[in-house]
Amino acid sequence: LAGGGALLGHLREFRRDPLGLALRAAHDAGDVARVRIGPTTVLFVSNPDAIKRVLVDNFRNYDKQTRGYKALRSLLGNGLVTSEGDFWKKQRRIAQPAFQRRRIEALGGVMQAAASDMVDEWASFGDREEINVADAMMRLTLRIAGETLFGIDLADASKSIGGDVDQLLTYFRYLFFSAVPGMQYLPTPTNMRGRQAVRRLEQMVMGIIAERRAGPGDELDLLGMFMSSVDSESGDSMSDRQLRDEVLTMLTAGHETTANAMAWTLYLLSRHPDV
User: Fold this and answer.
1) Taking a C-beta distance cutoff of 8 angstroms, is the pair 75, 167 a contact?
2) Res 155: pLDDT
3) Burial readout 260-271 (b: 16 or more C-beta within 10 A, e: otherwise)
4) Which of 212, 222, 74, 232 is nearest to 146 (CA)?
5) Which residues contact 12 (CB under 8 A, 6 or more apart)?
6) Buried/exposed code over 53-85 (b: 16+ C-beta within 10 A; e: otherwise)
7) Long-range contacts of 110-114 (CB under 8 A, 24+ apart)
8) CA gap 165, 261 in Å, rounded
9) Is the CB of residue 160 less than 8 Å from the CB of residue 201?
10) What angle do CA 133, 139, 141 make, to 5 degrees?
11) What pairs with residue 44 in β-bridges?
12) Phi and psi dihedrals of 32, rounded to 5?
């Protein structure tokens, strides 16, 4: 791809606007674009058939030992998003029963009730009252995540938990875009804040797991389903550490990303009322 510097390649553009760089690569260089990010050569694949070859047809040739996955693994552990190979297959078998259609449909009622409560709250506002939609979507998805993952309402702790999730994702981006190897081991303020956020989230999750271990164990939320599931081949169940990795992964993936997608969707609908 043209436009990179002799020493750093497209590193500056990648750190400033990674999505813009990916779009430019697809537009200027076609289906497969070769881009140099510092000392690393990266291939941007945009052709659907080529993407299918990487992810489905020939997936054994590609692994998750990349810089981005390593940074994410250091924060979220070895859950379904970051694990691979035989370990991933085993975890996938254990987790599969939690995603049966009837179980997901049961969780749908929780999501519908949370959304309805939010709409009712908005309906009580005056015509000239402003709503921060991005913030509202964050609170909504955190409530849904708390009730579907743990069976508890996280509304009272939404600001602290949401802040920690946001800090974790900010820390991931810091590690991913860092130009200096080993930056995560230095006692910088960003490292300290990121690690503290991860510790607080981990303490919350591990505390809930400990309470569940001491209880009857018949909860129908995702954590309860994970705890009751076993591998059909080995008979193994998830350890507390693995439960932590899977639940923290889902809390992170199901909170900010979903909220941002919904906020942007509402924004686009407001710009296109005919739709």
Assistant:
1) no
2) 66
3) eebbeeeeeeee
4) 222
5) 5
6) eeeeeeeeeeeeeeeebebbbbbbbbbbbbbee
7) 110/144, 110/147, 110/148, 111/144, 111/148, 114/140, 114/143, 114/144, 114/147
8) 16
9) no
10) 100
11) 33
12) -130, 115
Predicted pLDDT of residue 77: 92
The 3 state secondary structure assigned to the chain is CCCCECCCECHHHHHHCHHHHHHHHHHHHCCEEEEEECCEEEEEECCHHHHHHHHHHCHHHCCCCCHHHHHHHHHHCCCCCCCCHHHHHHHHHHHHHHHCHHHHHHHHHHHHHHHHHHHHHHHCCCCCCCCCHHHHHHHHHHHHHHHHHHCCCCHHHHHHHHHHHHHHHHHHHHHHHCCCCCHHHCCCHHHHHHHHHHHHHHHHHHHHHHHHHHCCCCCCCHHHHHHHCCCCCCCCCCCHHHHHHHHHHHHHHCCHHHHHHHHHHHHHHHHCCCC
What pLDDT is stored for residue 241 in this prediction? 92
- For 102, other C-beta atoms within 10 Å of its C-beta total 6
Q: Both tokens of residue 203?
A: 């303490």
| Tokens found for residue 233 | 């081949």
Question: Which residues share a beta bridge with 45?
Answer: 32
pLDDT of residue 179: 65
Residue pointed to by tokens 């692994």: 63
Per run of 10 residues, the mean pLDDT along the chain (length 275 residues) is 82 88 88 87 91 92 88 91 91 85 85 94 88 91 87 73 85 80 78 91 90 77 85 87 91 85 96 95
The Cα–Cα gap between 258 and 193 comes to 24
* Separation in Å, CA 42 to CA 9, 25, 28, 45, 115: 11, 11, 15, 10, 41
